[in-house]
Amino acid sequence: MAPSPGSNSRLSIFVLSLAIISGGLSGWAPPLWRSWAIATYNQILAWAGPQTPPSGLFLIAIDDASLQQGQWFAQQRNAPNWSKGLGQLPWPRASYATLVEKLRAAGADAVALNVLFEGPSSRSSEDDNQLAATLARHKGHVVLAAEMLEPNDSQGAGGLSLAPPFLALQQAAGGTNALGLTNMLKGEDNAVGPHPEAYISQILKPHGFALQRSLPLALMDAGAKKSRQPDALRALRPYGPEGHLPRLSAWEVLDPHRWQQQPLRKKLKGALVLVGPTLNQGENGHNSAFGVLSGLELLGTASANSIDGTGIAPWPATALARALVASLPLLLLGLIGLQRSNLSWRLGCCFLGFILLLLVSSSGLLRWHRALPLLAPAAALILLASGFGFDGYWREERERRRLRRTFERYVAPSVVAEILQNREAAEGILLGKNLPVTVLFSDLKGFTALTQRLSKEGRSTELVQQLNTYLGAMVAVITAHGGTVDKFIGDAVMAVFGSPRSRGIALEAAQAVRCAIAMGERLEQLNQQWQIDNIAPLASGIGIASGDAVVGQIGSPERMDFTVIGNTVNLASRLESLTRLLNTPIIIDERTAELMEPQIKVINLGEHIIKGIGEVPVYKPES
User: Fold this and answer.
1) DSSP string, 22-62
2) Which of 162, 247, 498, 512 is the most core-located residue (most Cβ within 10 A)?
3) Do 363 and 340 belong together in one domain?
4) Has residue 43 been placed in a domain?
């Protein structure tokens, strides 16, 4: 069934609304929606699984194992010098000097110390001197961490202040050229955010701060490597869970015996190395697709993204372009859906569109490192499919009600329910279909004379009431026997058995004859009551014929009737007229007699000429 203009109009408005909403949420997403969108991208990354990071980057972690080793050695009598002070933070600065010396000796191009050396050492000036001497020897190859302090009550960048390393260490390393900021912009819900260079670009540069380089970029510069991406415009793309980037525990570098046996030592030649703590990451870490990541892992991820250019960028870059791209799937699929009303087709288009959207977005994220609009278009496609489903259900229910109203004028509600189980078949019956049926014609004898007499006596109302009582009783009998009241023709009743639903031609024929007998019995009961009420009795004649007939809605556009036409109908009408000549209440044709035997015995009344048909044998049911 074609959709109505009103249905298409409503759907068009619905599709356009979804497209606008999808575009708005993709281009100008509120914070909560951005959080959900990030969670969607993270889920795709998690499905893809950990990725191989670029070579040439190592992390040296000041972790629980390093502290535990320091505590264990502290309990020994002859603890080696390298282990002294490692049981708790802060570590001796001389230990960092040792780390730098060993890493550079192993061939590391550059080392970044993600530790804030604020103020002089709490141990001694010699502790500072050892680290300063090491930094001076490897000037240009070691970078130190600095941090912008952000007071809780500050607004914008006005309350920021720099926390640099101890001046002596800073000068020994090469001044501000050897510094890199560790600040990062956090994502929604404390998730992984953009590259640390975004903090420089968005917070510091607009306000003219002197230090405008992140620690990962400072490390790359010290190692004479260039980033393969515009870092300030990229979000971090984690490679896996905490510890997925190549790393060593700091104590394994400090322990001479362990260091000599470490197989990864040979892979440090030409590498970039990040040194820093990974403790308490559950409290201070960042949520990611692979779990909580420490600050050191994130700084390493930023460096790795710069090395292989895998940072994630939104696509399209501008809000308006993203809104237009997000609206396109809705407009396209909505247009396709409006061309065809078939619900399966519409839902299939939405499903394929959803899968295609997911594949394109996933490929863009994983292969080309571009975050295409996904969550809003996907949610809108689900709503579009729901809208199509609701529209299909509404149209189906509307059509079902129309068919029910049509059939309930003619048949019992139970029969209607059975017919409507197959709407296509019901439509076929209404349009016209050739069916084997049994037709029953019942007419009152002498009713015309009775009408004239009562009219002259001014008793027309009494006549109408009597006729209505009679017809109501006959309809009840016909319905009880599974027949369909086709029409009333004055005092005549036409009923059909086997239309619109047949129980079997033999059963329908037998039921028609049983119905005729029951109609005679019911009329006798009415006559008895009318005799008591001093009302003239009535007598009827019934003709029954079986055969093929055309069943369907017939009439003009203004008035349609569900009826049957054909020779079988004409024969039943002629047999009813023959009841007066043969003085018998019920006459049936030969086909009906054949179908109903041996269920009901019949008496052959011989052959009689039927007007317009010819000579035919007729029968009556045995009393």
Assistant:
1) HHHHHHS--HHHHHHHHHHHHHHHHHH---PPPSSEEEEEE
2) 512
3) yes
4) no
Residue 154 has pLDDT above 50, yes or no: no
Environment class of residue 22 by beta-carbon count within 10 Å: exposed (0-12), middle (13-18) or buried (19+)?
buried
Same-domain status, 388 and 283: no
Average per-residue pLDDT in the chain? 87
Tell me the torsion sign for CA atoms 26, 32, 38, 39.
negative
- Domain contains 114: yes
Q: How many domains does the chain have?
A: 3
**240 lies in some domain:** yes
Residue 411 lies in a domain: no
Q: Which long-range contacts (CB under 8 A, 24 or more apart) does 410-414 make?
A: 410/484, 410/485, 410/486, 410/500, 410/562, 411/484, 411/500, 411/501, 412/479, 412/482
And the tokens for 136?
Answer: 């001076």
Q: Which helix (H) or strand (E) holds 364?
A: helix 343-366
Instruction: Find which of 346-355, 370-379, 450-459 is predicted with most confidence, using mean pLDDT.
Output: 370-379
Domain boundary among 280, 309, 338: 309
Identify each DSSP E strand in 454-558 by its residue range.
484-489, 492-497, 539-556
pLDDT at 287: 87
Residues 326 and 305 in one domain: no
pLDDT tier, 347 (very low <50, low <70, confident <90, very high otherwise): confident
**Confidence (pTM):** 0.67
Peptide bond into 5 cis (omega under 30): no
Tokens of 554: 């017939």
Residue of 555, 572, 552, 571 whose CA lies nearest to 563? 552
Predicted pLDDT of residue 79: 87
CA–CA distance, 442 with 440 (Å, rounded to integer):
7
pLDDT bracket for residue 433 (50, 70, 90): confident
Question: Which range has the worst mean pLDDT, 98-107, 203-212, 533-542, 597-606?
Answer: 203-212
Q: Which domain holds residue 557?
A: 422-621
Same domain, 125 and 189: yes
DSSP conformational letter for 491: T
CA separation for the pair 48, 44 (Å, rounded): 6
Record the tokens describing residue 92, joined without a space: 């001796």
Cβ atoms of 380 and 43 closer than 8 Å: no
Tell me the per-residue pLDDT of 115-141, one tens digit each, with 9 for 90 and over. Answer: 999 999 999 999 999 999 999 999 999
Residues 432 and 341 in one domain: no
What is the C-alpha to C-alpha distance for residues 221 and 555, in angstroms, rounded to an integer?
91
Q: What is the DSSP string of 94-111?
A: HHHHHHHHHHHHTT-SEE
347 & 305 share domain: no
Taking the C-alpha atoms of residue 540 and residue 205, their distance in angstroms, rounded to an integer, is: 106
- Domain holding 553: CATH number? 3.30.70.1230
Q: Is the dihedral of CA 162, 166, 168, 173 positive or negative?
A: negative
Give the tens place of pLDDT for each residue, 366-422: 999 999 999 999 999 999 989 888 887 777 767 677 766 666 655 555 456 655 665
The residue type of 564 is: V
- Both 78 and 206 in a single domain? yes
Last residue in a domain, options 374, 394, 414: 394
- In a shared domain, residues 463 and 577: yes
Torsion of CA 361, 367, 371, 376, to 10 degrees: 10
- Which residue has 């049981």 as its token pair? 87
- Whole-angstrom distance, CA of residue 351 vs CA of residue 530: 70
Round to whole Å and give the CA distance between 586 and 575: 9
